[in-house]
Amino acid sequence: MENMNPIENARLQLKSACELGDIDKNVYEILKNPQRVIEVSIPVKMDNGDVKVFTGYRSCHNTAVGPGKGGVRFHPNVTMDEVKALSMWMSFKCGVMNLPYGGGKGGIKVDPSELSQRELEELSRGYIRAIYKYLGDDIDIPAPDVNTNGKVMGWMLDEYIKLTGHHRPGTFTGKPIVLGGSKGRTEATGLGVTYITRNICHKLGLKLSDTSVLLQGFGNVGSYTFKFLAEMGFKVIGLLEWDKEIGEYALYNKNGISYEKLSKFKEENNSLVDFDGASRISAEEFWSLRADILIPAALENSVNEEIAEKLDIKVIVEGANGPVTSAADEILKNRSITVVPDILANSGGVTVSYYEWVQNRYGFYWNEAEVFNKLEPSMNEAFENIWAIKEEKNLTFRQATYVYSLIRISEAMNYRGWF
Ligand code: NAD
To answer: Per-residue pLDDT for 2 more than 60?
Structure first.
């Protein structure tokens, strides 16, 4: 299944959730394809005077509960099928957190490192000129994804305002704060991962101060996860990172790595390779360490079959998107290792994007504490509801999460008379 076309893969997950949740077969028929997919050609006048034409896509998967929501990625491997699949996964993710959105996703087939800033800006603006009629804070709402960021959202919002004449900042999320971005968005995904990690520990009877964690990745998600785990009393004993000179390497300290020392070192050296508060070990040694919890927060497909066989842990909390391959997932299930899936564990990010949209439409802005005070109970509620389904139907955590989300989407479609 690993090398399968992503939309085929997404459909299999959808079908399985329909079957496990005894959901009407018409739901599968409606959801197996997005409601709308757009392919556009974007001509850009390059710095050398030539015109280069890029291909862009936007998929809006389902609008039963609200407008489409999901990022825009700039990557050479972007395809229409990938964008369709990612928009379906976004429908599931929004459903998990009860957000009033269906899934959306967009992308442009491009290697942004080959473009100048001016070319990148032209491309971002050209993408919006091509699809702006299908975007809006009540139509479909893009956000940053792979290789896009707040700066790109700023250009896109500006182009959208110029074309429509309406200042509707809620059409995009992940904006810089001064353009209507939300306080707390940067920390939100890592903070959410930490809430979910704490909750699963409570369910499994693990005392936080005795719980050891292995973390992969010290980027946005990984570093904030580390910070909040440390604040809650967890011990992060192993960290796997990547460096362009030496590739993968890991740090290990059986008494726990100090977040303060680590983040200070990163700030001063822009790398953790020579960090002296832990021993340097290989990636292979990292994957064999004994710990309670593993949080992959770097890349997709990091936990493959071979790694799944040797892990000496009790729980995986998926901080990254799709870090466990489907073959590895099967092995982990047979080894009774609980896997808390990405669409719940890392949904703090999209939830605070939703708060950004609410604040934009309201025209009234919250401080960081207000954002976090809303995030925690809503993640706890989703966790508890999914746990109840998992226990009642005897499902894996991942299966229960998909079923829980699908029940809500299918109810909405039913009330709207779609089947
Ligand atoms: P990032 O680029 O900020 O950080 C990724 C980190 O992983 C970097 O520190 C990098 O050095 C490290 N890394 C790269 N290759 C590695 C390897 N082979 N082994 C170990 N470490 C490696 O990215 P991010 O925003 O933290 O996103 C991480 C994952 O979380 C992605 O899958 C992303 O889709 C997902 N995610 C992010 C958010 C968000 O709000 N940023 C929300 C939901 C999901």
So the answer is: no
Nearest residue (by CA) to ligand 1, atom 4, is 219
Q: What was the pLDDT predicted at 165?
A: 98
> What are the backbone dihedrals phi and psi of residue 63, each rounded to the nearest 5 degrees, phi first?
-120, 25
Read off the tokens for 109.
């087939």
Indicate the top mutation candidate among 193, 242, 244, 340 to test ligand 1's pocket, ranked by most ligand atoms within 8 A of CB: 242
> Would you please indicate which residues are annotated as catalytic (active-site) residues?
105
Q: Is 219 in the pocket of ligand 1 (CB under 6 A)?
A: yes
* Least confident range of 4-8, 37-41, 78-82, 293-297: 4-8
Question: For the segment 139-156, what is each residue's pLDDT rounded down to a tens digit?
Answer: 999 999 999 999 999 999
Considering the entire predicted model, what is its pTM?
0.96
Q: Measured in angstroms, how far is the CA atom of residue 146 from the centroid of ligand 1?
A: 10
Q: How far apart are CA 365 and CA 363, in angstroms?
A: 7
Using pLDDT thresholds of 50, 70 and 90, give the confidence band for residue 170.
very high
> What is the whole-number distance in angstroms between the Cα of residue 216 and the centre of ligand 1?
9
Cα 218 to averaged position of ligand 1 atoms, centre (Å): 7
Distance of CA 343 to the CA centre of its chain: 7
